[in-house]
Amino acid sequence: MPIQVLLPQLANQIAAGEVVSRPASVVKELIENSLDAGATSINIDIAQGGTKSIRIRDNGSGIPKEELALALARHATSKIARMEDLERITSMGFRGEALASISSVSRLYLTSRMIGQSKAWQVYAEGSELAVTIKPAAHPVGTTIEVLDLFYNTPARRKFMSTAKTEFTYIDDITRRIALSRFDVTFILQHNGKIVRQYRAISHKYQHQRRLVGLCGQAFVERAMGVSYHNSNLAIHGWIANTAGVAIIPELKYSYVNRRTMNDKFITHIIRKAYQEQFTETQQPAFVLFLEIDPQQIDVNFHPTKHKVRFYQDRLVHDFIYQAVANTLKQNSAPPSFVDVN
Ligand code: ADP
Ligand code: MG
């Protein structure tokens, strides 16, 4: 076969393989877009584990009519414009890839009303690179994205999806992870028309415990020790617990870097080590930990899902986290109590 440039539709579908592996990754990308748009309330409505439909509605800034079609184009983003921007990135997104990828493997409706505008508009894309139809719609300020029939045109991917129940478990997990990092935002998760989770935004510190119980369960919160350390370059806060002998559902091993949820062995490994130093093997670490670091000290553009970051000074970061966890465990060898640190 001669060398030829792939059609945009096919190129997007191939790229989608990296960003969108299952319904939960769609949910993650869409929630992150809502947060980047400044939303304070996000509704996530799922049908059949997301295999039938995923609808995310937010009250964020909305998208101007002229940019609606562009939002679905590949490498189109409002979040960075030049290389330097990447070095101090604070938004969740920056590649301009999610909507292009998702729309190439689904039927997607994007409806939005921009702040200060009286009308809402809707575009529809069905596995095409650029949406062509745009029509007026009824919608309050903010954005709704509806993703139908995910992977309908990529049978190989479709085959790899689990049951609706399992796919929903992944969606529940990613929603919880993100909701843990943003107590100031309301998240309402529905499955097949029923409200499954309601994480209400809180504005006062004294409500933190309630929201944490809603997210992580009573058993975790009862055993949670507050972690709070910082030096001139790094800060860590959150909760750790020994959960040996109690069933913690879900399994809480959540770490974040600059509020971005991580799926990284690096941090989990450090925490395990600190636990082993302090306790016997039977202790089960559970944790929710937020690391804050100067964005210039990390590379977030290191992994397609942004679930991993690279630390330029990984030794320093390692030692800092280790110390914070080890000190907390030592100080709390007495029965732990809830400490509010968020
Ligand atoms: P990225 O998030 O990397 O910029 P996406 O493909 O996820 O790329 O989104 C493309 C663009 O569409 C964003 O840069 C943003 O301008 C706009 N957008 C997407 N979702 C929303 C939303 N919920 N509210 C407002 N704007 C949005
Ligand atoms: Mg995005």
UniProtKB/TrEMBL annotation:
- Give the GO biological process terms: mismatch repair
UniProt keywords, alphabetically: DNA damage, DNA repair
The signal sequence is none
Task: Provide a GO CC annotation, any one.
Answer: mismatch repair complex
Which residue ranges does the record assign to the DNA mismatch repair protein S5 domain?
212-330
Under the GO molecular function aspect, what terms does this record hold?
ATP binding; ATP hydrolysis activity; ATP-dependent DNA damage sensor activity; mismatched DNA binding
Q: What does this protein do?
A: This protein is involved in the repair of mismatches in DNA. It is required for dam-dependent methyl-directed DNA mismatch repair. May act as a 'molecular matchmaker', a protein that promotes the formation of a stable complex between two or more DNA-binding proteins in an ATP-dependent manner without itself being part of a final effector complex.
Family per record: Belongs to the DNA mismatch repair MutL/HexB family.
* Name of the protein in its database record: DNA mismatch repair protein MutL
What organism does the record attribute this protein to? Answer: Moranella endobia (strain PCIT)
User: What's the name of its gene?
Assistant: mutL
